Amino acid sequence: MDWSQFKTALPRRSSGEKKTSENQLMTEWGRKLLKEAQESRSQKGSAASLRVLTEYPRPQMVRLKPAGRYEILNGWWNYAVMESRRVPQEWEGQILVPFSPETKLSFVRRQIRPEEYLWYEKEIQVEEYPENQRVLLHFGAVDQKCEVYLNGRRMGFHTGGYLPFTVEVTERLHPGRNVIQLCVQDLSDTSWLTRGKQKLEQGGMFYTAQSGIWQPVWLEWVPLHYVERMWITPLYEESMFDIRLRLNGPSCEGTAGSCTAVREVVELKLYEPVVNQAEKSDGACCFCNAGRKLLRELKVEMEPVLLDPVHREFHMRVQVPEKKSWTPETPWLYGLSIAIGEDHLASYAAMRCFTVEKDEKNIPRLCLNRKIYFMDGVLDQGYWPESLMTPPADGAMVSDIRRMKSMGFNMIRKHCKIEPDRWYYHCDRFGMLVWQDMVNGGTAYNMMSLCYLPTLLPALFARKKDQGSRNYRRTGRSQQESRRMWQQETEETINLLYNHPSVAAWVLFNEGWGQFDSADACETVKKQDHTRFVDHASGWFDQKQGDMRSVHNYFRKLQVEKNPRKKDDRPFVISEYGGYAYKTEGHLWTDDLYGYGVYKSREKLQSAYYGLKQQIRALEKEGLCAAVYTQVSDIEEEVNGILTYDREIWKIPPEKQK
Fold this sequence. Notes:
single chain, alpha+beta, six-stranded antiparallel β-sheet
């Protein structure tokens, strides 16, 4: 395996300790877990019993018995940092998975450099499992590239630090002792690979680079022939759910197309909708539908469509009687039960649609369920002082979402990051719209030309193109493989989050970072998912495509801006604004400060914020369709959060708490 193709220029090794090494800032969830982990290490024999992020990782598709067995592998793993890919002869210590080694909760606190290799090892005991089943090893996310080994054999390889992947380990797994090993390398911002806001030399709007496993790891037992993926599309006008199931084998002879040699009985049950179902559940049985009224039941013998020699699809629809629409105010979720062969699944779905329609003044508006709906959003980058991109607990994710709802926000823009699946599940059930960013990559950015000048002089950069080799160089996308990988990861991101009713928009590029061929990209995304909005260029470098004209405004008077190029029938949104900074002593990650407008007192900060919100409400009448305030919490040097980085202090409280 040659990883040199990904490298651009390796930075020199830092001569001193990173400033994060002694930082003690933590959230309440981090302190609790840290205490439990310390106790487990000090008490003989208790380390194996430490429970870390044990909630069901995939609540959108719960596999039920008789298969449906799963095992969370989070907890203590062995680790070693090597100068080569050679398997360590001895281990340096233990790391708490799924926390990256750069974090406090990992118990390692070491920056992994691009020239180093991070090795993991986990011993697991497996009881004899039934025949006619497969065993899948799931990784929520591993940053950035990794090889997976089981009992000494290489089982798979994955590149990309933000998306989940699965390795089938059936043939190599055996009853008794088994050993999982990973070899990970993270080039971070020294390559063109996807990196989001990570930077080895962090500062300002870019944060401490992390590496390795940072989302849950788990084993799952499935039937020999099982559902690999499903797509649930609400047909709002028809009051129907369109359901597409993709299965692995068995296949029939022949090429792709209709496969009449194999027929399957598909059983589907639709259950009554509920609001805020099973608030305290771990997600494994939230939508198993026990005790809920059955609305529809279908049992159909179907012919699959053969995709390739080992994959086939089934397609069906179910009518929804007296539909109840999903909104942030009333997040109705229907229960679904799907059985095909030996595979039994529980899921959920919602009736809702997103459209662009004109109001009585002929102003284009964003609509939810055919009604004009102002999307009042907040930027959320999902960082934590003790664990960086990994939420320290399921409750931590819930708390952020519910706090933002209490602030009056009905939308979160998930910025330059993909969260664990459970985060979107919580948005689904609590009623929080999501604008999902595609994670940025590309080579090093010239921040003067990509960010600072465009935000100050937007009209000057309104005509900038993003096609051709000259523009690729400007935005860090000269490598063809870099552009190809972004397209692949965009498709995977949409497939991953497709079934979550809360996801309202795909944001393709942010402020020109790695932007290229955005008009073509927008068309491709629309073909894959025509049910959601697309913001093809958030900030500037607008190519007059997508469902909205999207600008960032931190330093100018807030107003509904007209496209300087020509008449524009797209709804106008301010996809970033605010960013007001205030340092809360005792809750700072560093003494350095970064933000957009600095306030010396909380009172002045709050007054400025609520004055800004009044301006936004006034602009709504003039044609503003959505706005995104920066941001949920402080992050490292960036102290422009509504909450402090440790989530201890409301710098800007909800109006009812003032």
